[in-house]
Amino acid sequence: MSPAEKDTVIFILPSxxxxxxxxxxxxxxxxxxxxxxxPKEVNPDCGMALETSPNMASALNDALVEAxxxxxxxxxxxxxxxxxxxSGTWLKIQxxxxxxxxxxxxxxxxxx
Length: 112
Prior knowledge:
Layout: E1 7-12, H1 16-28, E2 34-37, E3 48-52, H2 57-66, E4 73-78, E5 81-85, E6 90-94, E7 104-108
């Protein structure tokens, strides 16, 4: 898989204010993420979003929810393809505590 096709998970929050609060929180918790422009395929309006690897998506989601930050939507991204992850669905993620070739955990993604 080329780097342009790598899987990531994108979190869309309702405002830049929420995104910046999320950025500060994730830095404090030392969770890996990138602050990115919202992809036009997801929302044609300008804005910022939080992006992370699939194996860190649950930790990021949990941190945002615990801090009371509303998440509008979550997308799985591969290159320029986006799949919306519906609230309450189960997402298979690699367990980071099991190493690079560890097992998969299944976590429920919950957001507003």
